[in-house]
Structures
1.
Amino acid sequence: MLNGLLTGAVYGLVALGLTLVYGVLHIINFAHGALLTAAMYAAYVARASFGVDPYVAALPLAALFFGVGYLVQRLVIGPASRGKDENILLVTLGLSIIIENLMLAVFRSDTRSIDVPYAMEVIEFGPALLSYPRVIGFGATILVGIALFVLMRFTATGKAIRAVAKERTGAALVGIDVAHIYAVTFGIGTACLAISAALLLPSFYVSPRVGNAFVLVAFTIVVLGGMGSVVGALVGGLVIGVVESLSGLYLGESLGQIGIFLIFILVLLVRPTGLFGARA
Amino acid sequence: MTGRDLLPIAVFALLAACVPLFVTSNVVLNFLVFTLIIALAAQGWNLLGGYGGQYSFGHAAFFGTGAYLTAILQVRYGMNAYPAFAAGIALAALVGLAIGFMAFRSGLRGSYFALVTLAFAEVFRVLANASEVTGGAAGILIRLRADPMNFQFAERGTFLWVAAALVTLALLATLALERSRLGAQLVAVRENEAAAQALGVDVLAVKLRAIVLSAGMTGAAGGLYAQYFLYLDAQIAYGTWISVEALLAPIVGGAGTVFGPLLGAVILHGLAEATKTIAGRIPGIDLVVFGIVLILVVRFPPRDIPGLLKRWRR
């Protein structure tokens, strides 16, 4: 249960990027999972080839993936979608196919994981034994959440992002470069992924399809928390983490995932605006 | 339907019918049958996504249901292959009705509809992977008994005829739909749902009919797949790959047109084969081409290409 809560925190971080992109650009980014896979491989290479600890690599990776996200939005998604919803879905789907299969071509389909000395260490917390990577993940997620809140609330960029999210045309009229803000937002979303990747790697394996395991989970969290709501994403992440560990416990390994999909379908059918969402 | 509309379909049928007379290579025949099966699944997607504008990302739910029922009825209940195939189509259509009823009644559109269909397909995949009746993770194997009575043929060419005949039927059905009242209403819903409703179109009923037809056709592709390859597992039947194939082909070839899905399937799989030949057996490289083609087609819609060429010449 508590471990589910901690895993959920990292899920929340994965979903944070997705919900941010949705809230501002009003697009559903299908390439989210594939970008996460790419970030996990980057963290893997950093460890396996250069011996860099994933936690140390987190910040440089975040910077790198901010750049990647910025360019992807600026050069591919923006021009190709020409503002239409269906097109964005298709373009990001195309991107995810490309990224996933490039990873497959480079790293083959083997499942890989890294060895870090602390992977198996646990921390005693009352009666519960918490694994060390998960505690770190939880802490880092909270930190990133706070950092994002500060960024959105107090900086000029954050204000511009919120302006664009609320009123695209109005923002353009007062001189905000909307295409630039879109790309920055996408970059931030991707940077969140890079940090999640670094946090996941010590306790998770990586394979070309690993992003798929997360992408529906992330969508579920985003929908559950209300599209575009940062708090919703974090709370949704915690809920999903618990649901997953409970349904895994009661339904067994192979059926465990189903709890998440069912929640997802139910929320979409019954309350598409999510628990914290105001926008339809 | 006039003779002029039917001519291209007749040409396709004739061409496809001639292929087995000249081509004997099993590799080539396998490739062609597979492409036709994808074209059939894609034609199903096209009825709902192309004409109705409802982009499903989960047509695997229908493909897999058609495939599994065709296989399960034969293997577990000893049913003859033909009624099993028909039952597979019927159940796929029923699944379409159920998913459509839930999704459309809740007013899910656009990205939300795409996501909910994807989630349904994933639920089926997890269930099929864990259930006894589908053979679980080991999959299900249809026994090889090559006999036309069993819907199995000693010659691959014969199966190509069957697949081509089904694709021809699907083309005719699409043409008939395009010319029908339902077809006109579907396009109206795609172009402007509110306006269609204001004009007295029963939007829910129209969408439901479309998803039933769409699911049945894609289910037929699944049944055909099972009957040709004689093996299924959850990843084949309900995997994301088939959902993607089903939507990629119409979008590349032209969504909402009679020949779009067939054209798209041939282009995509032709390109994929060509890439594999040139680049060697690097895993996933053919799919990278799929992704690039998809982005390019969205970026430069084929109907804009004459204009682009004109601008480029100047």
Note: Chain B touches chain A at residues 55, 57, 102-103, 106-108, 110-112, 114-116, 118-120, 122-123, 126-127, 129-130, 137, 240, 244, 251, 282-285, 287-288, 290-292, 294-295, 298-299 (CB under 8 Å).
2.
Amino acid sequence: MAVFPRRRLAAVALTAATALLVTAGCGGGDEPGDGTVTLTVDVFGQFGYEQLYQEYMDAHPGVKIVERGTGTNLDEYSPKLTQWLAAGRGAGDVVAIEEGLLVEYKANPANFVNLLDHGAADLKGNFLEWKWNAGLTADGKHLIGLGTDVGGIAICYRKDLFEKAGLPTERDAVSKLWPTWPDYIATGERFTAAKTGASFLDAATNTFNTILLQTAGNTTGYSYYDTSDNLVVDSNPSVRQAWDTTMDIIDSGLSGKYGSWSEEWVSAFKQSKFATIACPAWMTGVIEANAGPAAQGKWDIARVPGNGGNWGGSHLAVPKQSKHQAEAIELAKFLTSAKGQIGAFQAKGPLPSSPQALDDPVITGATNAYFSGAPVGAIFGTGAKSLKPVYMGPKNQAVRTEVENAVRTVELGQRNPTQGWADAVTNAKKAAAK
Amino acid sequence: MTVQLDARPPVAPKADNPHRSSGRLSRLDTRFSPYLYIAPFFLLFAVFGVYPLAYTFWVSLHDWDLLGAEHPFVGAENYTRLLADADFWHALVNTLGIFVISTVPQLLAALWLANLLNRGLRARTGWRMAVLVPNVTSTAAVAIVFGVIFGREFGMINWLLDLVGLDAIGWKSNRFASWVAISAMVDWRWTGYNALILLAAMQAIPRDLYESASIDGANRTRQFWSITVPLLKPTIIFCAIIATIGGLQLFTEPRLFHSGTNPIRGGPMRESQTLTMYMFENAFAPHYNFGYGSAVAWLLFALIAIVAAVNVLLLRRLGGGNRPEKKAAR
């Protein structure tokens, strides 16, 4: 009787303590312990690095590379990355950052390794000048990311649907159909009149973004924010012009209204429900992944109406929280080298941001079998070196979301263009203030 | 046994020192052991309940950029801005709307199902297990499947509507239609669960009540409304409270119902954005404003507390009035 209660007390205390320990000690090491270093690479969409990882691992026997997030869309990827950074753990050793978000991350450079401290300055010549500068903080002292790709724009189209509609199918002839956006709309009207059962384009939002970045690149050099970070949604003529052209497209009934990146959008690819899509170089990999092998050879690529343009492109960065910074920096340098960029282009189509890679015969002479052997190197590469970058302001992503949503409400018939524009401006201002 | 135990104390504790200390220990034991036994729950509650609540409140008083290094104190500014935020009220109406049109039919259907299961069916256990199956499936899978069924272009429902010559419905871009679609998901998942709880309560109702009712000539419907439902009231209210808490925190179904660009809005015009989605939109992508998001979380907490209090009041009012039948029956 004397001993029993004491032991029971102890047992209770022990149980309570164990319960706490079990719940608190959920972390723990993840290294295999045999000397290998596992590097995690976080990407979204299609980066085309698989082959490069293999090469790198063969050359570095102590390194194992794991990629996460292939096929994820940017809207799902960016909150995760931000949460990992804010929490101080969870992010990969190398992370991809899209140009529109880079501005937000640049505001807090302490989250990332300063690549200038690790010999990155020598690599400057490997990148287009503006692409290099985009990875630098405003004071130029901190390099957050090395450029991977840029987004030269074209129009990808379905040859079989064009043929059904009695339009030319050969890529040069197709390019001649639409020197300007009004010509593109006129072609779309011819296509629609032929009643093929498919829409002319996938979603007005993608086309809107293409037109905006093209117009802005050719004129002001900025879109929603001016270079002093003032919100100029309602006063920048580029935004208004892109809006009006998009309204004409919607008004002509050309859009299939398949919300970009939605499940319906993916189904529409598979079921051949639209004939054209605004096509930055990286989109070719997305099309191939969504439309699948059955559509091989049915797609082709023509030039974009208007004059050139740049949409998208990413950087690779190394978060400070990485436990293997040195190895991660080496890997990032390898993946963004001219050789790495060429390899990614060959795998999934993102256009190199390295002038050396752009001049390489592998790129200039590249064709893409999925897109009926289109000379993708010549189509996207020509003019890539003279691409005019568009400046992105601090809340670019949030503002862009609001404006694209306004486009979508008009596309779905929920608002008329006047109401839609009013929404776009009000909501953009609200988002910028948050 | 009892006699022996009663007999022992006067002798044993006074015998020697170790025994005396053991007496103190056992008094301590009786006094504090129960607290120690329940301590794990309260410690866990403190760590995972109270601390996050307090921390969220602390965050909500700051201008807290998720990635920022500085978090200046702004007092109640987040709250005042939030109360003037039309999107917040819009999300509140959505949440309550979805809650009402999902909970009411859900509880009625559960009651009906429970009543069916309470009868002498063949393979009764099988049926009872079957109603719980939807609850076991993953919410994500349910939401994705329903998202496909309610698709605008390739969805099954619109295809059926087309077959009977009706216009397709924009299930994701029409506010009320999207509420209905999401409610269907919630109901599909939770009706069986509630039915089983109601069934358990139904089985506790004494059979003799029904027997005497039959002798008095009451038919099944009459018995159901005059005996079953009144005696089930406390259980029904319990189900309603559980549904309230779940309903006001609805997130996964509406979030996964929408795919594509920025699905956290619940449609281009926030047709089915619930409060938890609005909280997420502000705390995380695309705004990363942790302070504002935390303020939404606290107002949601207050809302749930209010609705739960209303439920408790209802419970008190309805709880007492249902015994007379029982007395009368005896």
Note: Chain A touches chain B through 55 residues (CB under 8 Å).
